[in-house]
């Protein structure tokens, strides 16, 4: 059963009284986590946001996934958006004690989804042709090359699902319930996101081509990422609002 707003733990409580505006499902999610020197990321994150680190180490995560069942509140699924693949590149930030994610880039194979998110959420969204296929347990994910970005990979789960342990790095990486960005004046903006805690599985992945970190001039501490897989999350998204910087 989906978690209701009134019974979620403290760190997941909403910071807006507005109703959610969109619901969608994310499936076959791969989290590829790369440790990155703190100073490198501090130079890439807007000054209005504070880089969040785990034991003084910054992290960047590449996330390919499939979006489906997208619909606005009170309306049926949006025509032309039945299911489409996408990926994002994110790091971790905090503001006023509320941890969240900051996206360096996001892509979607659906033009309307990419255009709408870029327009209404002020996010660095790109439209890109992609190929997604599930062959038994193996996910085949391929994108074209555009704006220096390209991701070709295969991945699969290799364990049973479980919720991340309290206080673990896994929990720190994935249990975040808002996204941050800034407007043209550098003022922080926030959109709340709500879903059940991630059911994570250990994963294996083969990256045939991956230019996503290179495009940001990021060299990770280790070439091999920490990998997690999640089968599905049903997500509610709130409108983007100005985040008070106390």
From TrEMBL:
Highest taxon of source: Bacteria
InterPro entries: ADC_dom_sf, DUF2071
Protein name: DUF2071 domain-containing protein
Highest classification ranks of the organism: Bacteria, Bacillati, Bacillota, Bacilli, Bacillales
């Amino acid at each position: 059963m989906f978690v209701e707003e009134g019974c979620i733990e403290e760190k997941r409580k909403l910071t807006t009284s507005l109703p959610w505006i969109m619901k969608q499902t994310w499936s076959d999610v791969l989290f590829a986590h790369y440790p990155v020197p703190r100073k490198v990321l501090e130079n890439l994150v807007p000054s209005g946001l504070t880089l969040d680190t785990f034991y003084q180490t910054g992290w960047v995560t590449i996330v390919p996934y499939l979006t489906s069942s997208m619909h606005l509140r009170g309306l049926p699924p949006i025509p032309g958006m039945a299911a489409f693949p996408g990926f994002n590149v994110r790091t971790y930030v905090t503001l006023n004690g509320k941890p969240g994610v900051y996206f360096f880039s996001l892509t979607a194979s659906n033009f309307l989804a990419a255009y709408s998110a870029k327009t209404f959420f002020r996010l660095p969204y790109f439209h890109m042709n992609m190929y997604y296929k599930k062959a038994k347990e193996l996910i085949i994910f391929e994108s074209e090359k555009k704006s220096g970005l390209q991701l070709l990979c295969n991945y699969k789960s290799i364990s049973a699902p479980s919720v991340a342990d309290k206080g673990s790095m896994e929990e720190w990486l994935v249990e975040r319930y808002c996204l941050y960005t800034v407007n043209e004046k550098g003022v922080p903006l926030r959109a709340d996101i709500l879903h059940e805690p991630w059911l994570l599985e250990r994963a294996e992945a083969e990256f045939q081509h991956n230019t996503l970190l290179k495009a940001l001039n990021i060299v990770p501490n280790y070439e091999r990422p920490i990998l997690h897989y999640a089968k599905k999350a049903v997500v509610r998204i709130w409108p983007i609002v100005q985040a008070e910087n106390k």
